[in-house]
């Protein structure tokens, strides 16, 4: 099972979140949103590394989550994290899903994002 599939499975099992695929142009972009208020708490997508400011070529799977500004400021300089992709860079953070961040840390951050967006 891929890390993406594990995250989506966790969201379904823990929050009863049915994954939403709202973008016709990007059918693989998976949105995690609350049932009650439809706010997003996560977005999984595959983008070109160059779009993230990475020197390498090719694509990478990422998860964008909401976090407190102090945590965003701290983590965006840590290996495996980047400023938010296509979201407010003060309140959102990109996590690389390439194994550079432990799954347990990703799950903890996703949980915090879930709580922040209720």
UniProtKB/TrEMBL annotation:
Q: Which domain of life is it from?
A: Bacteria
Sorted UniProt keywords: DNA-binding
Q: Enumerate the Gene3D superfamilies for this protein.
A: 3.90.1150.30
A molecular function (GO) term: DNA binding
Q: What is this protein called?
A: MmcQ/YjbR family DNA-binding protein
Please name the source species: Candidatus Enterococcus moelleringii
Q: What is the lineage of its organism?
A: Bacteria, Bacillati, Bacillota, Bacilli, Lactobacillales
